[in-house]
Amino acid sequence: MARMKFLCDADRCIECNACVTACKNEHEVPWGINRRRVVTINDGKPGERSVTMACMHCTDAPCAAVCPVNCFYTTADAVVLHSKDLCIGCGYCFYACPFGAPQYPRVGNFGSRGKMDKCTFCAGGPEADNTEAEFVKYGTNRLAEGKLPLCAEMCSTKSLLAGDGEIIAQIYRERVVKRGYGSGAWGWRTAYRETIAT
Amino acid sequence: MTAFLARIRAAVGVLALLAIVVSVTPSSAQQQKNPDGSVNPTASSVQEEQLFKEMNRITGRCTLPDQKACTLEQPAGRDWRYFHQVTLPWIAAIAIIAMLAILTLFYLFRGMVKIEQGRSGRTIVRFNALERFVHWMTAVCFIILALSGLNITFGKSLLLPLIGPEAFTDWSQWAKYAHNYLSFPFTIGVVLIFLMWIAGNLPSRGDIAWLKDGGGIVGDAHPPAQRFNAGQKMIYWIVVIGGTAVAVTGYLLMFPFWGTSIVGMQTAQVIHGIVGALFVAAMLGHIYIGTIGMEGAFEAMGSGTVDENWAKQHHSLWLEEEKAKGNIAGAPPPGRMQPAE
User: Fold this and answer.
1) Per the structure, how many domains does chain A have?
2) CB contact under 8 A, B266 and A95
3) Of A135-144, B69-78, B168-177, B213-222, which range is least confident?
4) Domain locations in chain B as residue ranges
5) Which CATH number does the domain housing residue A158 bear?
6) DSSP E strands: which ranges in B216-328?
């Protein structure tokens, strides 16, 4: 099986936010929740780079480790998913996540945050694939249809890559060799404890 | 000759300065070159590694209304994860199991501390209805808060395998609601306990002597004590200080980002977890002495009255005071005339 990963080639990201919009539209993510976001580092300064970030589907995911009800599971494709039926909305995954991925529909009234929501790598949840119940809770399940995450699929500069870690790392490596520079695979060391040697 | 040396010194100084400037200059935006050797301005970029070295998180600008989303990476959660998964379970398990072991051994060797002279049959009011109400309100809340809190740390390894994920989620969801809402009566109880009993719980001279004599529970001595002895004063301050600590950190967690950042909430959880676990251990000791550890002690919080001989044994100075006030049936208080009928 593939080991699914995201890779943002920051030297290509033009901060168009199409990935954010695509995600919100595809999964009908509620107002106030952004499964994906674009952050610009050193904005307006030399060396400015934009990075699109969502759940990185970490190896040995911290969210899954700290969850007090064990609602997380990892698929055969190494995608980190969770069950909204089991989630109690305690917020611990949010304390542990290095990427700020977990979000809650309600914030702040006596700790009733509601069920956690995060990027699913377009792989749905524990319900049967592409059912109404799955869509309402987690959005579409593109992986079950043989498609890759929509954010990466419609990235206009192909900055955001999603797919098997080996393959996207190879694509990135070739780009770096060809153009002679690369600002690195953002988040990889934190998420996967490895980085792409170029 | 001196002029020549001075010139050499100046030259060396300039070189040293240059070396410093050059070694410091490599900035976050490094100039990189194209494969053909020409400088490529777009190749200079901010580096993730460099940003991590500068601070423990990477923040930028984003267009979302929620500006917290502009934090790109914060690996600090790794330390918190280690605390939550390893450190806290160990601290809590050791504190609670050690306390239970000590109490069990103590009970086996010492047994229940009896009223030595037997019951006199005369009783004296120790805690009035309000005091008992506040005590039990706080106590009931504490027990539920402790169980639902321990569930967050130990539930998934102890209870989840027994009852299955669905039942465990249902229970944990209710436990979480109970934990959040019962915090309010608990906090009110802690405040009332603080106000109600502060007068009797300030440290006094007799406390050291009382502790030296083992408080009458370790040895056979019965050192004199006021209404609250040094051991009870310790419980009082554990409740007041520990209760305040768990309440403050708990409310910080209950209202995310109200005056806290994510690091603030991680810290609050660390304090909440450690204090909570030690609090549970301390209260186990309190429950022991109040029930099977000492004959006649439970009545103080049960019916509110204690036997005179119990009071004489454990709170002799307090008994004298109460007698002086005439709050006990029996011998008339000395130095006061009985009204003539």
Assistant:
1) 1
2) yes
3) B213-222
4) 125-325
5) 3.30.70.20
6) 305-307
Tell me how far apart the alpha carbons of residues B186 and B181 are, in angstroms, rounded to a whole number. Answer: 9
Question: Quick one: what percent of chain A has pLDDT higher than 90?
Answer: 80
**Residues of chain A positioned with their CB less than 8 A from the CB of B156:** 67-70
Enumerate the residues of chain A whose CB falls inside 8 A of the CB of residue B266.
95
CB within 8 Å: B80 and A96: yes
Q: Is residue A198 part of a domain?
A: no
Report CB contact under 8 Å: A92, B84: yes
- Euclidean distance between CA atoms A124 and A137, whole angstroms: 8
From B176's Cα to the closest Cα of chain A, the distance in A is 8
**Residues β-bridged to residue A8:** A160
Residue A197 lies in a domain: no
- Residue A21 counted as domain residue: yes
**Residue B30 burial by Cβ neighbours in a 10 Å radius (0-12, 13-18, 19+):** middle
Tell me which residue has tokens 């609090």.
Answer: B279
CA angle A56, A57, A60 (to 5 degrees): 120
The answer, for B53 touching chain A at a CB cutoff of 8 Å, is no
Looking at CA atoms only, how far is residue A52 from chain B in angstroms? 9
Q: Facing residues of A76 across strands?
A: none
Q: Residues for chain A: how many in total?
A: 198
Q: In chain B, pLDDT over 70 holds for what percent of residues? A: 83
**CATH top-level class of B125-325:** mainly alpha
Q: A154 lies in which domain range? A: 4-192
Answer whether residue B331 shows pLDDT above 50. no
Q: Which residues of B touch A108 (CB under 8 A)?
A: 255-258
| Closest residue of chain B to A62, computed from CA coordinates | B81
Per-residue buried b or exposed e for B42-55, using 16+ beta carbons within 10 Å of the residue's own CB: ebbbbbbeebeeee
Considering only residues B26 and A182, tell me which one the structure prediction assigns the higher pLDDT: A182
Residue of A85 and B219 predicted with greater confidence: A85
pLDDT reported for residue B51 = 82
Q: Average of pLDDT values for B63-80?
A: 87
Helix, coil or strand: residue A194: coil
The residue-averaged pLDDT of A136-163 equals 95
Cα–Cα distance, B279 to B294 (Å, whole number): 21
Residues A58-101: tens digit of each pLDDT? 999 999 999 999 999 999 999 999 999 999 999 999 999 999 99
For residue B242, the 8-state DSSP code is: I
Output the pLDDT for position B170: 95
Domain assignment present for A182? yes
Residue corresponding to tokens 């309600």: A106
Using an 8 Å CB-CB cutoff, list chain A residues near B81.
62, 65-66, 96
Contacts of B257 in chain A (CB under 8 A): 107-108
